[in-house]
Specification:
Elements lengths: L7 H9 L9 E12 L2 E9 L8 E2 L2 E3 L6 H13 L6 E7 L10 E9 L2 H4 L8 E12 L2 E6 L5 E2 L8 H15 L18 H12 L5 H15 L3 E7 L9 E6 L1
Parallel strand pairs: 1-6
Antiparallel strand pairs: 1-2, 1-4, 2-3, 2-7, 5-6, 7-8, 8-9, 10-11
Length: 254
């Protein structure tokens, strides 16, 4: 027991304390799983198989158990609903609008996972998820459309459950801010030990929705990651047997 609680009068207070006299909100976690494909930002969504919002699309997540912390609960829910494990997650924000869930007072602690496509390519639906899919994210007139990889399924904001569209938008803005002052882009690489600067440039474009000049981008990355921090190292020049263009230069994250 915490040594600060060993006083006799404090022990007596705790013994007579009645927690049932106070309303208790429930706590959930929501996990935004982002990846990139060429110059497109993508997100993993699940189709809810239970009420409320049955048949609507949502971010994976669920209730935190009494014996686990929020991050542990987030990773457990992600595994149960999508089969995905061993991903690094970072806390985004705590959403606490009293009206955010029609069942009861529920507070959600949201997390972001930024992963390479190979990590989630074989995701599966489980638990109360009816279906899961990886969707391209498209902005139009301030709203988001989600298009699955077959281009046959389009999900609009109105088909997203709870306040998850608000959570998604906040997460995207957070990534746009972080990509220039952190190593966020490297988390999307399928192979950080062997990549080209063109791959990295496509990731930047996917997250920021900007186009980057090849030469200027190369100068920016080399200045930031070789001269200032020495976080990447050139590996080799490789030319495909039938290629006619400039050979590709590979890099490794140190």
């Amino acid at each position: 027991m915490d040594k600060r609680l060993l006083k006799k009068d404090e022990q007596e207070f705790l013994k007579n304390y009645k927690p049932q006299e106070y309303d208790k909100p429930s706590v959930t976690t929501d996990i935004l799983v982002f990846t990139t494909e060429k110059k497109r930002l993508q997100i993993l969504l699940i189709k809810r198989g239970v009420y409320p919002y049955k048949d609507c699309w949502a971010i994976p997540g669920g209730f935190i158990q009494m014996d686990e912390d929020a991050e542990t609960g987030a990773k457990r829910e992600l595994l149960e609903e999508t089969g995905i494990s061993d991903v690094h997650i970072e806390q985004l924000y705590t959403f606490s609008n009293p009206e955010r869930d029609p069942r009861m007072r529920i507070i959600s602690i949201s997390y972001i996972a930024t992963v390479p496509k190979v990590k989630i390519a074989h995701h599966k639906s489980g638990d109360d998820a009816k279906q899961s899919g990886i969707f391209d994210i498209f902005f139009h007139d301030g709203k988001i459309n989600f298009v699955d990889e077959t281009d046959e399924l389009i999900v609009t904001e109105d088909e997203i459950a709870f306040d998850h569209i608000e959570i998604i938008k906040m997460a995207i803005e957070r990534m746009k801010e972080k990509i220039d002052y952190t190593d966020l882009a490297f988390e999307f690489l399928n192979n950080p030990q062997k990549f080209t600067l063109n791959e990295l440039r496509d990731i930047y474009s996917a997250v920021t929705e900007k186009k980057y000049d090849v030469g200027n981008f190369r100068k920016k990355i080399i200045e930031k990651y070789t001269k200032k921090t020495q976080k990447i190292k050139s590996l080799e020049i490789f030319k495909h047997e039938n290629s006619k263009g400039r050979p590709s230069e590979y890099w490794r994250k140190i």
